[in-house]
Design brief:
The radius of gyration is 24 Å and the shape is elongated. With 228 residues, it is an alpha+beta fold. A five-stranded mixed sheet has the order 2-8-7-4-5. It has a three-stranded antiparallel sheet with strand order 1-3-6, with no helix packed on it. The chain is built from six helices and eight strands. The chain folds into two domains: 118 residues, Immunoglobulins (Immunoglobulin-like); 86 residues.
Length: 228
């Protein structure tokens, strides 16, 4: 009888494991800036379209929010979150010093640069496959200098008059330098000047490029507005 009970228990356990499904890790950046892939096509200052952009509110370091809350388990088991930073897809190290259990939304304080992060979720039986995400972190001034570089590249390939380019480029440089010395109100004013000049010169840039530049500038404004 004991052997029969043991066999039934083993059968049920094996059946349960076979019927169970592994969890799925879903990873995104909660405070991602809306930067058009068009800018990467124009300038190497913007990495490839596989990157997710974050503009931190200050000029040193700032928050990047990695969001794994959309991860799920088909069997509806509770999940544990295992965060990592990676040198490559197959070379990841666990992020240490996190509370236990680790949060579904992880806030990291990062300086400007390019990063690769990973997330596994564990349902008590199975680990999910690794989900990874590439993040490019910019300061406000770094993003504005990047936009300025896009303008320089466009001026080399399109007939932008020499009288028009300074009206577009100079406010960006002034705004970037103002952010670097902590003069945020002046920087925001210069960004608005840049946007107004850009909107008043529609014939020199196509609509998609013009909107991509405006969106990038507005992303800086939004990041600073969300800052301390």
């Amino acid at each position: 009888m004991k052997k029969l009970i043991l066999l039934i228990f083993c059968f049920l356990t094996a059946h349960s494991l076979l019927a169970a499904s592994p969890p799925v890790a879903v990873l995104r950046v909660a405070n991602e800036a809306a930067i058009s892939p068009l800018l990467h096509q124009i300038s190497d200052d913007f990495p490839g379209p596989e990157f997710h952009y974050v503009i931190i509110p200050g000029e040193q370091s700032g928050p990047v929010l990695l969001d794994g809350s959309a991860s799920y388990d088909p069997d509806r088991d509770p999940l544990r979150f295992l965060w990592s930073e990676c040198l490559a897809e197959d070379n990841c190290q666990a992020i240490t010093g996190l509370p236990m259990p680790a949060p579904a939304i992880l806030t990291l304080n990062l300086a400007p640069g390019s990063f690769l992060f990973g997330l596994n979720v564990y349902d008590g039986t199975f680990n999910s496959p690794l989900a990874t995400i590439k993040v490019a972190v910019y300061t406000p001034s770094g993003m504005l200098f990047g936009i300025r570089e896009v303008l320089d590249e466009l001026a080399d390939s399109q007939p932008i008059p020499t009288t028009v380019k300074p009206a577009l480029a100079n406010p960006l440089t002034d705004a970037a330098r103002s952010f670097m010395v902590g003069n945020t109100p002046h920087a925001l004013h210069q960004i608005k000047l840049f946007e107004n000049h850009l909107k008043s010169q529609p014939k020199y840039l196509d609509a998609a490029t013009r909107q991509a530049l405006i969106d990038a500038a507005e992303a800086v404004v939004a990041a600073v507005g969300n800052g301390p």
